[in-house]
Amino acid sequence: QDGRKAANPAFWWVSEEGEEVKWSFEELGSLSRRAANVLCEACALQRGDRVLAVLPRVPEWWLLSVACMRAGIVFIPGTSQLTAKDISYRLQASKAKCIITSDTLAPALESALPGSQVLKSKLLVGRGSRDGWLNLKELL
């Protein structure tokens, strides 16, 4: 109406159930800055540190990958089909200081975590909570 074009979304995600998440470039920038602050402050990560993300392809997967680029943190993606043995190996080989997963995958991953000497923080994506895990939604 006023001669301006509608802004194209920077990110547009649709779940199998039809739930949509749309972020403009401004929203993605703001959210990724906040997520980078969570990684640097709450998770105590620094430039060059590694993060292992075992997540389904939810919006937070892309948000955290952009946040890691912003903060200079190495983002190591992992599929939700990894076994505890696979995760343990990846934690040891990468020397990841943080693991990020969903509230539904966390119980399966916990058996792989005690062997890691370098792991400092565990970040949960989702609505649930677990002892010893930080919740991304609460920290954002």
UniProtKB/TrEMBL annotation:
One GO CC annotation: mitochondrial matrix
Top-level taxon: Eukaryota
Residues spanning the membrane: none
GO biological process: acyl-CoA metabolic process; fatty acid biosynthetic process
Signal peptide start-end: none
Chemical reaction(s) catalysed: a medium-chain fatty acid + ATP + CoA = a medium-chain fatty acyl-CoA + AMP + diphosphate
Domain AMP-dependent synthetase/ligase, first and last residues per copy: 8-128
GO terms, molecular function: ATP binding; fatty-acyl-CoA synthase activity; medium-chain fatty acid-CoA ligase activity
Keywords per UniProt: ATP-binding, Fatty acid metabolism, Ligase, Lipid metabolism, Nucleotide-binding
Enzyme Commission code: 6.2.1.2
Broad class of enzyme this protein falls into: ligase
UniProt-listed InterPro entries: AMP-dep_synth/lig_dom (IPR000873), ANL_N_sf (IPR042099), Mitochondrial_ACSM (IPR051087)
Similarity comment text for this entry: Belongs to the ATP-dependent AMP-binding enzyme family.
Protein name (database record): medium-chain acyl-CoA ligase
Source organism (scientific name): Lanius ludovicianus (Loggerhead shrike)
